[in-house]
Amino acid sequence: MTTAARPTWDTAKGGRGKGEGDLSALSKQYSSRDLPSHTKLKHSDDEDDTAELLAELQRIKKERAQEEAKKEREKKEEEEKIRMENIMTGNPLLNTQNNFKVKRRWDDDVVFKNCAKGEDGKKKEQHFINDTLRSEFHKKFMQKYVK
């Protein structure tokens, strides 16, 4: 194992020139990031903007109240419309729509419907067999491709 990862027991020594031995002495150089910035604060007059802010607040409250009233009105109109529609179509004697057709499936008109091989009007019970030679799949496969 190398000694590169060991801690330093003796602190680093500076050069032997004048002022180089003391590393804690202040340097004459400094970074621009160390300089103070934002040395002046902005002061605003509170009385100038209060009237404008109150007027803006009142305007926003008024707009929100109008928007809420509009939403409430639209909601009531929609509920009334749904209620009237339910009243009109609720009674089948008053409902004049002639849609008494029997609904058919999309595949009712196929030619060979319910013509599965070996179907005798009863479904065979499917159960799992943990033997590949006696499984239903293997039996069907052998009948189809070997015989």
TL;DR?
By secondary structure, this protein is mainly alpha-helical. The protein contains 2 helices and no strands. The longest helix is centred in the middle third of the chain and has 45 residues.
Tags for this model:
147 residues; mainly alpha; flat; 37% helix; Cwf15/Cwc15 cell cycle control protein; mRNA processing
Task: Characterise the protein shown here.
GO terms for molecular function: RNA binding. 37% of the residues lie in helices and 0% in strands. The chain has 147 residues and is mainly α. It has a domain of 42 residues. The chain is built from 2 helices and no strands.
* Class computed from helices, strands and strand pairing: mainly alpha
Helical content (DSSP H or I, runs of 4+) = 25-40%
Q: Radius of gyration from the CA trace?
A: 46 Å
Strand content: under 5%
Pfam families: Cwf_Cwc_15 (PF04889)
Coiled coil: 50-82
Protein name: Cwf15/Cwc15 cell cycle control protein
GO molecular function, one term: RNA binding
How would the blueprint of this fold be written?
Blueprint: H1 46-90, H2 136-145
Region (Disordered): 1-49
Coiled coil: 50-82
InterPro entries: Cwf_Cwc_15 (IPR006973)
